[in-house]
Amino acid sequence: MEVINALGRRKSAVARVYVQAGKGNIIINDRSLEDYFKEGTLQYIARQALELTGTTSQFDVKVNLDGGGIKGQAEALRLAIARALCKIDSEAYRGVLKSNGMLTRDAREVERKKPGKPGARKRFQFSKR
């Protein structure tokens, strides 16, 4: 099997994933998954697509993660792995991933700050006199 690559985004985080046949190692920015994501919940989010399809020990995943916060990076990684699995075998994995919402990109972004205002929607205090 050749190397399959996919892209996942969440907020301002970008995950570039390279999946190939292997033993189930996940390497993120030249560090292990447990070393990069210290929290168990973030490790679970990152592995979620592999666990749903039952392919945790079949593929090695190499990841370049950039931008955003730690939670956004974990969710970007989940989307990228799900997209890569669909490229590998669409018939076997797509139905399971789609029904669990793994293939939908969460498009919510931070609203930009407007000129003359302290934030995106906040206004300065109103003074009547």
Fold and architecture overview:
The chain is an alpha+beta fold. The protein has helices at residues 33-36, 40-53, 70-88, 90-99, and strands spanning 4-10, 13-21, 26-28, 31-32, 59-66. The protein has one domain (4-99): Ribosomal Protein S5, domain 2, CATH 3.30.230. It is built from four helices and five strands; from the N terminus they run ββββααβαα. The chain has a five-stranded mixed β-sheet with strand order 1-2-5-3-4. Helix 2 runs parallel beside helix 3 (70-88).
Outline the secondary-structure elements.
Elements: E1 4-10, E2 13-21, E3 26-28, E4 31-32, H1 33-36, H2 40-53, E5 59-66, H3 70-88, H4 90-99
Parallel strand pairs: 3-5
Antiparallel strand pairs: 1-2, 2-5, 3-4
Helix pairs in contact: 2-3, 3-4
Strand content: 15-25%
* Major β-sheet annotation: 5 strands, mixed
Structural class: alpha+beta
End-to-end Cα distance, whole Å, is 74 Å
Provide the low-confidence segments as ranges.
none
Name the CATH class.
Alpha Beta
Helical element count? 4
DSSP strand count: 5
What is the CATH architecture descriptor? 2-Layer Sandwich
Please name the defining characteristics of this protein.
single chain, 129 residues, alpha+beta, 5-stranded mixed beta sheet
Quick overview of this protein structure:
With 129 residues, this protein is of the alpha+beta class. The chain is built from four helices and five strands.
